[in-house]
Each structure stands twice: as C-alpha cells, then as structure tokens.
Design a protein that fits this description.
The complex is a heterodimer. By secondary structure, chain A is α+β, with helices and mostly antiparallel strands. Chain A has helices spanning 13-25, 82-85, 118-130, 135-141, 161-164, 193-202, 209-225, 232-242, 246-252, 261-265, 310-329, 339-342, 350-361; strands at 9-11, 29-36, 39-44, 55-60, 63-68, 89-95, 101-103, 111-116, 144-150, 176-180, 186-190, 205-206, 272-278, 284-290, 300-301, 304-305. Chain A contains 13 helices and 16 strands. Chain B is α/β, with parallel strands linked by helices. Classes of the chains: A alpha+beta, B alpha/beta.
Chain lengths: 363, 256
C-alpha cells in the first residue's frame, strides 16, 4: 500500500506501549530486542519493559558498551533476528534405536516483529531468498503476522545502512514504522492497511508540519552519516577486479585471526555444519549449527581444501556479501548494520577494506 | 552387544582428564556396560597391556619410561586418543622447559636424585602417531563420551576446527572482550569447552590450546598487542601460552 504523502501521526512512548499491548491482545507474540541480564538479545518480548528504551549502546571497531540513558538511543547488539529465524543450534532429525528417522516438527503461533531496525528487517529479506527452501526457516518466517519497525534517528558509529540502502529509514515491508525524536515525540507512519487500522485504533493525531520537518531533518542527517562509503555497484565491480590480487587481500586481512565472530554476528550469514550426537543405546540426534566461513574446516572437503589460507577465507567473506549474493539471489548480502566491525575482537573494519578495494580497483 | 576395549594410560599429568573419563562413563549406565577396561593402572589392579580398540592417553611425555610406554601402547591400540591439553600440547609442565631443571626439581622434591626427567616436554604426537586429539584442561567429558559411542558403532570423530568465539556466539554469550574490555584468548583458542569461562563473564585463558590452523606467528603477535592494550601483561599471556599451547608455539616458531 502506498504511503499517502505527508501522512505522519504523532504520539509518545505511551502510545508505543499501547501498540505493544494491542498486538499482544490480538494473540501475537512480539519479538525484538530484549533486555536479558546485562545484554540485549533478539527474541520473545514478554513485556514492554524488556525493550531497551532507556539504554544506549556506544559502538566502535572492536568495542561495544551499553549505558543507561533515559534519552539515549539503542541501535542493536551482537544478537540479530537470525537468532530467532535461523537459530544457532537446530535439531534436524532423530533416529530411533531401530533406525527409524523421525523428522523434527516445529510449532508456534503468530509473531509480530516489534521495534526492529530497518537493517535487521532487510536482513530477514536476504534470508528469505537464501533460505527459501529451508523448512525450518520457512515455518518460522510464516509466523510473522505484523512488522513494526523502529527507524534509526541516531545511527551508531559503525553503521553504514545508508550505503547499502537498507536504512536508517524503513523501506517497504512494514506495517507500522515509528521514529523516536527529541522531547519524547514519536512519529508513526503506516505501510499497510493493517498498520493504518492499528494507528487509527490508537487514536493518534496527525503530526504538524513542523514535526514532520524536524523528522525529515533528523532522518536526513542519519542518512548522510551512514552513506559515506562508495556506491555498491562500484564496490562489486572493484571486488571482481581485485580477485587475483593475493598481496592486497593478505595485507587487508593481516590482523584477522579467523575467530568467525563476523560470521556469527552477521544477520545474513547463514552457513551451518551438521553434528551427530549418538547415544550408547543407538539413538541418534542430528543437529545443525552455525558455522563460519572464517573457520578452518569450512572449505575443507575429502582430500582437499578450497580455502586453506586465512586471507582466502576473509576474501571469501567480503566477496560473498558484495559480489556473490547479488549473483546468487539478486540482493547485496550486506545490510550495513556494522556488527562485523563492532564485534570483531581486533576491530577489523569491512568499511576500510571496501574503501581500499574501490580506491585501488574502482573505475 | 557392541563393546569397546579401552586402555587408560597416564603420563605426566594431573589425572583430571582421567577423572572426566570416569565421570562420563559412570554417569551413563548404558555406556558403562559397553566399555571394557583392559588397562587402567590408576583404578584397577590387574593390568596387562594388550590389544585394545582405544587407548586414551593423558599427559605429556617427560621421561624416558613414558616414551617407551606410549610406543608400546601405540603398537597395541587401534585408535590412539591424545586426551586433554597435556597430551595434545604439552600442558602446564611444559612451563619448565628452558628453565634450570635442577632448580625446578628442588622447588618440589627434597632429593633431586630421585627424579629423572627429560629436559624437553613432548606432546604425544611428537612421539607416536595420534589418531584423535581431544584437547581441554580438563577434556570435555561429553566429547569423550560421544567419541567412545561413535567408536562402539564403528565410526569415528569428525573434527570441526573452529575457535571458542563460535561457541560463545551460538550460546548467546556476549563477547567479554568487545563488551567489557576483558582480555580473552578465545579468538585464537580451539573451541570445545562450550564457552565455559566467558559465560561467567571472564576471559578465556586458552586451556583448549592455540589454534595454529587459524593463526600464524604474525597474526598472534598482532592479537597479543590488542590484549596488552586491554591490560593483559605480556608476561601473563606468555605464561598461559606456554602452559596450554607449548607444542603449538613451537610449531609457529618452526614455520617462521
């Protein structure tokens, strides 16, 4: 549904709470960023209080800190929607003592993405294409009945969603999007009939021209802050030309230790490895678990190894996001969330690598 | 009923991994029934070193007698498992290598003449061919039980080489290094522990050993600079690496 131009509604955090409660009363389970202990995870939101509204994350290459700050703005943590849609350890099948294979059935009711950032919503769309024939993913994906997006008014220091075109504003694919502005003002917009009905139900009034102007100013600034990298097409072209430059890739990956944190925190990295657990009785369980392409055995096959050296595996990670995904599924695999930059223990920055590739191999 | 015959061999070590073996077997009656102990000098009286399916070798080779023992074990075992970090990398006793041996011995024994050890401490693979490496200080009892069950059913270990970080992320443990500035050896250390220390908010001290299929000397040096900036002294990190990754460090140096 087309957004009518200038149709913004005004409200505050209490309206957000009301929206949350309406969603729950309809039997939808809200999922999003949840406070658990001293960290934020992606998962089921059993109460509005668990949303990280009064917290602020400060991110830099190799560094993440969470502070209590009532007027602060939370972006994201190392935990992405992947944890819910494509869980880290999944039971695939069970085999009985008599060698009968029992498929694992997954259940669960409808869910609503609540307060999820545009980059993370975009990452689910990438997974949609990659895992389109994956039963477990499809079953979870089909449970999403409503999407409420929180736009990023104040992007983090490692964010580059403007470059990847996945943020900081909500693109399509949402029912309601909201932006938290200064002074407790929350601006709502709708992206579907359902979203509009919900907004009407909340009794929100239209935003004033000044409020919309302020929203546009804030989002413009956010877009500018996250759009400082070269254009994606240029990146793809340059990467293709850089393929054989062994010295270049060795140099840019010289600090990498192959820990695969980038793979694990990347919301679109989807690779898994199968592990079999056998009980003494003969009963067996097959699970698949996330496995990163930076890890040594990733490219290993019987009698050979596709990418035995670490620089090859790092190169593969970068190429896959910007060059291979578009060829495979027609979308860039990177959504610009910057998690791989923040959560790299040595602070290796994919933005630098991409800029350097373009500087050397750009047109 | 399918069974597996096992020899439990102890070299220079603390018996912690052998304890893990006992826990693993004793906590599963089904597994207990399927394990035949052929040789285990620590907990049975009659021991004959004969043909076995699996030899679980704990500890590193620090004496001449141990070298002869493991060679003899190798010739009788279908599968030799290096059990724990001492067997795989050398272990804590490797910290004495390069020190004045007499002084080290005197620190513990009143009469040094009763102690006869070699100056070098060798991981098992420097003495005999090793089929399976299960590192950890102590070894993860669950991994050991899984291996034994697979052997009982005629299979073997499929090793996945990755670092401790993957385990933290899968378990949803927030990175202590990035989020708290706690120095952590996880990024360069073999996984297998199930993210034990970081799940309690402390840094990994590398007891599963340095993963040299991922880091070379140059990468390690750069990584240690990061740890140093987080407040871990070079002396501390060197002593951890020597204690838990001795043979891996030697391999890095040999590669240049």
């Amino acid at each position: 549904m087309e957004q009518l131009p200038g149709t913004y509604f005004r409200g505050d955090v209490e309206n957000l709470r009301a929206l949350f409660n309406v969603i729950r009363s309809r039997g939808l389970e809200p999922i999003g960023y949840v406070i658990r202990g001293d960290a934020i995870y992606f998962g089921s939101l059993s109460s509005f209080e668990l949303l990280p509204l009064g917290l602020e994350d400060v991110q830099a290459p190799g560094s993440y800190r969470l502070y209590r700050n009532p007027s602060g703005f939370f972006r994201h943590s190392s935990s992405s929607p992947k944890y819910w849609f494509h869980p880290p350890v999944q039971r695939v099948l069970e085999v009985s003592e008599g060698f009968e294979v029992e498929a694992v059935q997954e259940g669960g009711g409808p869910v609503a993405l609540f307060g999820v950032k545009p980059c993370d919503v975009a990452s689910i769309e990438v997974l949609d294409r990659i895992l389109s024939s994956d039963d477990s993913f499809r079953s979870r994906r089909s449970r999403v009945a409503l999407v409420v997006v929180e736009e990023c008014t104040v992007p983090g220091a490692t964010c580059f969603c403007g470059t990847t075109g996945t943020g900081p504003s909500a693109r399509g694919g949402y029912d309601i999007a909201y932006a938290r502005l200064g002074g407790g003002l929350v601006l709502f917009k709708y992206g579907s009939e359902v979203g509009l009905k919900l907004i009407e139900e909340l009794g929100l009034t239209k935003a004033s021209e000044d409020e919309v102007a302020e929203y546009e100013r804030v989002m413009g600034r956010a877009r500018e802050a996250t759009s400082r990298l070269p254009k994606l097409q240029e990146v793809s072209r340059a990467l293709e030309r850089s393929l054989a430059d062994e010295a270049f890739w060795k140099e840019v990956s010289s600090r990498c230790v192959g820990c695969a944190n980038c793979n694990m925190v990347c919301p679109t990295c989807f690779c898994t490895e199968f592990v079999d657990y056998l009980e003494p009785s003969g009963r067996a369980r097959r699970v698949r678990q996330w496995f990163g392409c930076l890890s040594y055995t990733y490219g290993q096959v019987a009698g050979a190894h596709y990418r035995p050296e670490l620089y090859m595996r790092y190169r593969h990670f970068v190429l896959h996001k910007f060059l291979f995904y578009p060829k495979q599924v027609g979308l860039v695999g990177c959504v610009g969330c910057g998690r791989c930059v923040t959560w790299c223990p040595v602070g290796l920055d994919i933005r630098d690598v991409v800029s350097r590739v373009v500087a050397k191999y750009g047109s | 009923m399918r069974k597996v015959s096992v020899a439990v061999v102890k070299l220079t070590s603390c018996s912690g991994c052998i304890n893990e073996f006992l826990y693993a077997v004793a906590s599963s009656p089904e597994l207990l029934r399927r394990v035949t102990l052929v040789y285990a000098t620590e907990f049975q009286d009659l021991n004959t070193l004969e043909e076995v399916d699996v030899a679980l070798v704990e500890g590193s080779v620090a004496t001449q007698q141990q070298e002869e023992l493991v060679k003899s074990v190798r010739s009788r075992a279908r599968l030799v498992v290096a059990l724990g970090t001492c067997a795989v990398f050398g272990g804590v006793q490797a910290a004495r290598v390069g020190e004045d041996l007499r002084r080290v011995i005197l620190a513990s024994y009143p009469n040094p003449d009763f102690v006869s050890v070699l100056p070098e401490v060798r991981s098992l693979d420097r003495v005999v061919r090793v089929d399976v490496r299960l590192q950890g200080c102590p070894v993860n009892g669950d991994s050991l039980a899984r291996l034994l069950v697979k052997v009982i059913y005629g299979g073997g270990e499929v090793s996945i080489v990755e670092n401790a970080c993957s385990e933290c992320k899968r378990a949803g443990v927030q990175c202590v290094m990035v989020s708290k500035g706690v120095p952590c050896l996880g990024p360069v250390t073999f996984g297998g522990c199930g993210a034990l220390c970081p799940s309690f908010g402390r840094g990994c001290y590398g007891c599963y050993g340095l993963n040299t299929s991922l880091v070379d000397a140059e990468r390690l040096a750069k990584f240690l600079e990061v740890l140093e900036k987080m407040g871990m002294s070079r002396e501390d990190v060197n002593s951890l690496l020597k204690s838990f990754s001795y043979s891996a460090l030697a391999r890095l140096q040999a590669r240049g």
